[in-house]
Amino acid sequence: MSQAPTFSLGKNPELNLDATLTSGQTFRWHKDAAGRWTGILGTQVVRVSCVGDEFFAQTFPLSRDLTLLRHYFQLHVSLSNIVQTFPDDPLLRKAQRKYFGLRLLRQDPWETLASFILSSSKRIEHIRQIVAAICEKLGEPIQALDDSIPQRLFFSFPSPVAIATSTPKHLRACKAGFRAEYLWKTAHAIVSGRFDFTRLFRLSYADAHRALTTLPGVGDKIADCVLLFAYGRQEAFPMDVWIERALRRFYFRGKRSVSRQELNQFRRTHFGPWAGYAQQYLFHYVRSHPKVVK
DNA sequence: AGCCAGGCTAAGA
DNA sequence: TCTTAGCATGGC
Question: What letter would DSSP give residue A270?
Fold first, then answer.
């Protein structure tokens, strides 16, 4: 058998694969002993790595068109320009210094929506387990016929139809718990045409956010995750327990009496035009250094 | 053993 | 309009 060729996507010093792929925006990438990352984009298995400043990729089956990867990693986006717009405070300075190269991905809307419905009140490691189980049970098998891939069988992310024609009971067998009914009902809303997530691209942030929260299992936080990680809406600032702790501790001196509404007002105004990016740096930093907020 | 996790929903104040 | 119990599950 053969080995797939490796393509260069050029030099990019603004790409930190480890930070990007472990920062809780995506749940299906795996790192091998050589430091390469393997993931699934649609029905294609891809393997990426950085050597020095150079970004390399292999695709299975072979594809010479790397447009998909460039789009997924948003390689045209200048991180240094973005980081410049962040407010200047000690926490953000530390986060961006330590994890510079952390990029927001542009992921598939349905996979992002479904994954984050499954994410609620779960640790990232466990979200990965649930998503993996759902893909194995309901996704389509993908063969990566290449000698250099140890695990040759992968699975696509199950379509809305696949989820909808499954059952909540089946989804619970994937350890989805109480999120099973949410995912199943949301899949039905999409299959039936009651909800069209391609339409969201043309809506304002506020309207898209409102539309998403009509879905079962999707509230303010998950809507923001979907808008940020799949639709590229930089205003979205997902506030989970970690971000909330960080805001209270570092921007309100740990004052307990700060209301939720004050925090909302703050996150919408303080972080500038790339607030979503700032949020991702904060999140990854405090989650990697839990003691600074606990 | 008890607590917590990239929350949401519905009931009650 | 705002708070809060309840909801599965696994890891520490």
Answer: S
Strand C neighbours with CB under 7 A? A 121-123, 125-126, 129, 172, 175, 177-178, 259-261
A130 closest-nt by C1' vs CA: C9
- Closest nt to A245 (CA→C1')? B6
For strand A54-60 and strand A141-143, is the pairing parallel, antiparallel, or unpaired?
A: unpaired
Q: What is the pTM of this model?
A: 0.98
**CA A53 to C1' B3, whole Å:** 43
Active-site residue identified among A11, A31, A122, A221: A221
Write the pLDDT tens digit of every residue in A144-173: 888 888 888 999 999 999 999 999 999 999
Give tens-digit pLDDT for A55-99: 999 999 999 989 999 999 999 999 999 999 999 999 999 999 999
Instruction: For residue A263, give the DSSP letter.
Output: H
CA nearest to nucleotide B8 C1': residue:
A217
Which run of H or E residues covers position A125?
A: helix A124-138
The question of whether A221 is a catalytic residue gets the answer: yes
Question: Distance from first CA to last CA of chain A, Å, rounded?
Answer: 52
Per-residue pLDDT band for A261 (boundaries 50, 70, 90) equals very high
Q: If you write DSSP's letter for every residue of A190-259 in order, what string do you get?
A: HHTTS--TTGGGGS-HHHHHHHHTTSTT--HHHHHHHHHHTS--TT-----HHHHHHHHHHHSTT-TT--
